[in-house]
Write a structure and sequence with these properties.
It comes from Methylocella silvestris. Its cofactor is [4Fe-4S] cluster. The chain starts with 6 loop residues before the first strand and ends with a helix. Helix 5 packs parallel to helix 6, helix 6 packs parallel to helix 7 and helix 10 runs parallel beside helix 11. Helix 7 links the parallel strand 7 and strand 8. It is globular and about 45 Å long. The longest helix is centred in the last third of the chain and has 21 residues. It has one domain: Alpha-Beta Barrel (TIM Barrel). It is an alpha/beta fold. It has 12 helices and 11 strands. It has a 7-stranded parallel β-sheet, sandwiched between helices. Strands 1-2 form a two-stranded antiparallel ribbon. A two-stranded parallel sheet has the order 4-5. The structure holds iron/sulfur cluster (SF4).
Length: 329
Amino acid sequence: MASDSDLLDTKPLDAKPAETRHPEKAHRPDQPTLRKPDWIRVRAPGSPEWSATNKIVKEHKLVTVCEEAGCPNIGECWAKKHATFMIMGDTCTRACAFCNVKTGLPRALDRNEPQRVADAVAKLGLSHVVITSVDRDDLSDGGARHFAEVIVAIRSLSPKTTIEVLTPDFLRKPGALEIVVAAKPDVFNHNLETVAGKYLGVRPGARYFHSLRLLQRVKELDPTLFTKSGIMLGLGEERHEVLQLMDDLRSADVDFMTIGQYLQPTKKHHAVARFVTPDEFNSYAELGRAKGFLLMSSSPLTRSSHHAGEDFAKLQAKRQALAPERGNS
Ligand code: SF4
């Protein structure tokens, strides 16, 4: 069992000042920081298995959202070889108020990246992999073709590995979504991140109803794909807004919803309005199941890709269990 010294308060892994990673936030006043409650404590990274995952990631010159976002679960996930790859570089063209990924002008696409991702997936022996990316508003297709190339490369080297994509919104990129769906990932995830009323302050480059429509369109294009979306709590949202968002996701036929606590990466990022209690997270999970989601994952440390492999197995089992019911209706 872990001693207290094995447990960490969660801090971004990249200790560089906000100014170098987020030049657009440098002039902003510092935001107040709240002391984290006891339930936001995680195991420190550093086990031999964590080191083995780290070695493979570095050898293949890959970027992970686990590191770039300063994810609190990295100790646990990497010990199980579960790393989430972030393709198309480490620099994002958006500047969301919650996100620790570096912002700026990204480099040209690396055409060898799909093969390197596929090699790493094979080396790690993953049964399920999550692929995400930075926003690439600078590319005419938003990076959709690159996503498709990564899926094809993984399929050819690891045909049994199931693939989950967590994509940007491809705003103003006609045809981009269709390219990714045609590559047939097993799970299509696009996060709403927060309630509609918070978009301007939290996700100013995105549009709530565009993101919702994107999820709905995925299901229209290929009803066999599982769709998934997630939000963070603690950004100042009201409970009735979260319930409305859940209804909106169900109207878009989304299968799986994730809800986690927002953690502030630096003082220049959006403040944490409050730490939502584990009981409140549980109540959202119950409500979500009642509203018809196939699966709900709702806890302070839930992240989109946390336990994604186990959750995919649950999704498959739930769909199978419902098949006769739906066939008879
Ligand atoms: S929850 Fe996701 S982003 Fe966080 S460490 Fe695990 S795989 Fe990486």
